[in-house]
Write a structure and sequence with these properties.
This protein has about 400 residues and is of the alpha/beta class. It contains 17 helices and twelve strands. Bound molecules: iron/sulfur cluster (2 copies). The site of one iron/sulfur cluster (SF4) has 15 residues, from helix 11, helix 15 and helix 17.
């Protein structure tokens, strides 16, 4: 068990079951934490990110037309010694998890050494991969990860149209190998206008094959995905259908954890959910520069892996974590956001929506209310926003 002091008390990391628990000061004290100086002088933000996304490489052979990092077969990456240094510094800062991705991290011949170094300094390494090249031997090596998620945005033709190659069967075969090796394995499903129709069939397939998680990610207009984004983003009626569909899947497949990423929050909030429902789904809004941060393949720290705001080196997340002016801008946006965020009942959970989307529509400036939020759309059009309520089962 690891315990990390915070303004509100502490975050406790448990191994079995693997969980991060946010506890108040009284419970933190009961758990043995002495009185903390930050309890008398709260900083207003976490003492470190809980998770840092490390983009280990810009290399990938797949050539997906909507790649967020413009990956190519000869893309950049840092030497392992440099990555080891990032991991050691982040661990010393108190980070719990690192999400290893790319590009295709499995193309690095030192990926497992990097994961081992993360473990040796007390970090839990998780991996995202396309599954290309997975073998039974590699799957067994993946036992060192806390969780492996395969990129799978639908089945058959849907995947082919989304990623430009016939990869669904490859990803599902990789999932079978990983599950057989005892690796906790799920999928990352990028939800777009073209893929959302496969949500139920894909979740059923993951459940049938023993996968443990379906994480739904809103498409972001970043990298090559920006080129066709206006034609790929969810239609309003599709966005409105998402929450009830996710809840139905939770009921139908209790062995599969359904997760919804931070960027979906403004779309979910349009249906007027009880904030407790969002908490039950593990939903948090834009937590860039607080709960989350990232490091690019070139070694640049960023508040979010979808924003190329280049805060400096990894030291921005360690030595400058408390006072970096750009990080402060990220953390405080929701406190000064204009209408309709200013009077929105979900402001504290949503935090103004996805800044990657805002940046796309506001000529590179991320600090605007999410332009696809239905409340923001109504405000822009000068009409009142009407919640489109949905009925959820009482226990959700
Ligand atoms: S109005 Fe702003 S805070 Fe409210 S849901 Fe929309 S983007 Fe989020
Ligand atoms: S900008 Fe914020 S909401 Fe969007 S992906 Fe990054 S952390 Fe999530």
């Amino acid at each position: 068990m690891k315990i990390r002091p915070e303004d509100f008390g502490a975050i406790v990391a448990t191994d079995d079951p693997p969980a991060l628990l946010f506890v108040d000061r009284a419970l933190a004290t009961e758990l043995g934490l002495p009185h903390q100086e930050r309890w008398d002088n709260p900083r207003g933000h976490l003492s470190a990110p809980t998770e840092v996304h490390l983009l280990l490489t810009r290399r990938c052979d797949a050539g997906c037309p909507r790649c967020y990092v413009n990956a190519t077969p000869d893309g950049a990456q840092q030497p392992r010694e440099e990555v080891f240094a990032w991991l050691s510094a982040l661990a010393a800062q108190g980070v719990f998890h690192v999400a290893l991705g790319g590009g295709e991290s499995m193309l690095r011949d030192d990926l497992f050494a990097i994961a081992d170094h993360a473990r040796s300094v007390g970090l839990v390494p998780n991996l995202t991969t396309s599954g290309l090249g997975m073998t039974a031997e590699l799957a067994a090596e993946c036992r060192r990860f806390g969780q492996v998620n395969l990129s799978l945005d639908g089945l058959g033709e849907t995947y082919r149209n989304s990623r430009g190659y016939d990869g669904a069967a490859i990803a599902l075969h990789a999932l079978d190998l990983l599950v057989a090796a005892g690796v906790p394995t799920g999928i990352n499903f990028v939800v777009s206008r073209h893929t959302i129709g496969d949500l139920e069939a894909t979740t059923a397939e993951i459940a049938r094959r023993g996968g443990n998680e379906v994480e739904l990610l809103r498409l972001k207009p970043t990298g090559r995905a920006g080129v066709s984004y206006p034609h790929d983003r969810l239609l309003p009626e599709q966005a409105a259908s998402l929450l009830p569909r996710v809840v139905a899947l939770i009921e139908q497949y209790p062995t599969v954890k359904m997760k919804v990423d931070c960027s979906f929050v403004p779309l979910l909030c349009a249906t007027g959910p009880n904030p407790d429902t969002l908490a039950a789904l593990g939903v948090v809004g834009c937590e860039a520069g607080n709960v989350l941060a990232a490091v690019s393949p070139e070694g640049a720290a960023t508040a979010c892996s979808f924003i190329n705001d280049r805060l400096g080196s990894v030291a921005a997340l360690t030595e400058r974590w408390d006072d970096h002016p750009v990080l402060e801008r990220w953390r405080s946006f929701h406190t000064t956001a204009p209408e309709p965020c200013a009077s929105c009942p979900y402001r504290l959970v949503c935090k103004g929506g996805c800044k990657a989307v805002s940046k796309f529509y506001h000529h590179g400036d991320p600090f605007h209310p999410d332009p696809e939020c239905p409340r923001v759309v109504a405000h822009r059009e000068g009409r009142p926003f009407v919640t489109n309520p949905i009925t959820l089962p009482a226990h959700v």
